[in-house]
Amino acid sequence: MIEALLKKHVDDYKAVSVEAYIAARKKHFSHLDEDFSSLKGFDTILTLALSFPKGKPTYKGKGYGMVSRYSHGRDYHLVYQDKLKAIEACLSESGINSKGASDISPIDERFAAYLSGLGYIGYNQFLIHPEFGTHLYLATILIDRPFEINPYPYDTCGECTRCIDACPTDALSKEGFIKERCLSFKTQEKKPYDLDVLRDFKTYVFGCDICQDVCPKNKNINPVQREVFESDENSQLHLESILELSNKQFKRQFGHYAFAWRGGLVIKRNAIALLFNQGMDESLPMVEKTYKDYQHVPWFEETVRRILEAWRR
Fold first, then answer.
1. Strand-pair partners of 100
2. CA 208/CA 193 separation, integer angstroms
3. Other C-beta atoms within 10 Å of 163: how many?
């Protein structure tokens, strides 16, 4: 019954016992001192995958900023929200207590998926699925009974270092991942940046796909084609148009995309960095106006002031 239900709503799934998950977290992440109380009363973590289409529009060039492929189309959190509610309701009818979540759970979804055998974690830090590569969204559902399903055979990146070699900020290595160097991470943080950091903001206004684009595991994948996750006109943002929007207008226009979760001001900061790095001098008056409108926000003020000081030289 559980398998039939999951097959109806998601593209793939595996399972790991709560006991095994907790034991693995304590073994490998003891320094985090995690609270596992939210898992009490549950026996199994179901790990779920929805795949998203491969391919994206050709970059339009100066004046535009690309959005990471996972943020194209409808926000996957909203898609999962409906699916998880439907799964929970059906499980409840069968007397199974459950709790689903995507990105808002204390469960480390990627690690749970790895433990369940849904894929392996590559040097690029993504869960790599045998059929969908890195093109998948994760979620979990806790259930209050045992459930087992065979994992996929374990795979590795082997000697391949293409993602490591291609990373523009040297965030990746065989030894580990330096999150603070990652361009995708930088485009989402609300903190002041100096020019050395900002010089990496060249074509992506949100996220970064470089390590996925070069990954051989993504070469012959077969993600499910879903219209809801297809690229549209907002897979690349016109940078000046972003600066013209108030934060409320930004939310109304882009609130159903995953890239909007950090708010309009983060995207404005990134847009300004791109305009500066792309040599869009005609945009300077608009950048100065945006700076004045939001200079009361410390991290934004400090970052954009540095850009303006360099721009005016």
1. 141
2. 18
3. 24
Is 138 in contact with 47 (CB distance < 8 Å)? yes
Give the separation between CA 274 and CA 77, rounded to whole angstroms.
28
Catalytic: 103? Answer: yes
Helix 2-9 with 76-93: angle, nearest 10 deg = 160
Q: How far apart are CA 263 and CA 243, in angstroms?
A: 13
At 67 the pLDDT is: 97
Residues 25-75: tens digit of each pLDDT: 999 999 998 999 999 999 999 999 999 999 889 999 999 999 999 999 999
Task: Name the residue with tokens 């990746």.
Answer: 172
Q: What is the DSSP letter of 30?
A: G
pLDDT at residue number 255: 96
What is the Cα–Cα distance from 238 to 226, expressed in whole angstroms?
25
Among the options 33, 43, 75, 103, which is catalytic? 103
Global confidence as pTM = 0.93
Q: Which residue has tokens 């040599």?
A: 279
Do residues 121 and 39 lie in contact, with contact meaning Cβ atoms separated by under 8 Å?
Answer: no
End-to-end CA distance of the chain, in Å?
Answer: 68
Binning pLDDT at 50, 70 and 90, where does residue 105 land? confident
In angstroms, the Cα distances linking 178 to 17, 23, 303, 307 are 30, 25, 22, 25
Distances (CA, A) of 267 to 12, 113, 131, 258, 262: 33, 30, 33, 12, 8
What phi and psi values does residue 249 have, to the nearest 5 degrees?
-65, -40
Q: Give mean pLDDT, residues 283-305.
A: 98
Token pair recorded at residue 96: 């199974």
Compute the distance between CA of residue 79 and CA of residue 89 in angstroms, rounded to an integer.
Answer: 16
pLDDT tens digits, 123-162: 999 999 999 999 999 999 999 999 999 999 999 999 999 9
- Residue 12's H or E segment, with its range, is strand 12-17
Q: Give the integer Cα–Cα distance in Å for 270 and 248.
A: 18
Order across the sheet with 44-51: list the strands.
Answer: 12-17, 44-51, 136-143, 98-101
